[in-house]
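Hey, resending since the last one bounced:
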Amino acid sequence: MFRKTNVTELYPYEEFIQERVEAWLCEHGWRVITSVVSLSEHGPDIVAGNYSKTQSARLWTIEVKGGSRGKAEYQKAETISVFHSGIAQILTRMGRNTQTASKGGDKYSIALPDYFRKHVIKTTSCRPKLPWNVCKILNLTIFFVDEHGAVEYVDWKTIKKLNMENNYGID
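The structure tokens again:
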């Protein structure tokens, strides 16, 4: 799954983010069913299944977005554009099992390099780019992957907490 190469050469590109999230899924009891292997392929980047005896079969569809090593002054605009593209793509993949995730519904995520965090969750504008209540309704979560390959899974509860800490949330 994860290729043994110099990690700093691969971060923040999409292939690196995808490999790390696939490894995380396997470590947490999910089986990768399909995985896009090139940027020219169409469809979700990762589809994983969880077929435990305690839960009904459910799928986890993940759209992976990478970044670039461009100049810092262009990074914010690029990050927001890539994030919006990821949201649009994951929305078009929703619809099979619409129960909430806690009741066995399908899960949806966007996987991003960790430097996207400040533009996605801890925004400096008056509203967050990703409101927690939207994430809750859509079973939408985020994976952030850092330059060392560490994966952080962020659900709607964490997003709500961060939004509230920054006075962006409304209960």
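The CA atoms of residues 134 and 140 lie 8 Å apart.

Sorry for the duplicate.
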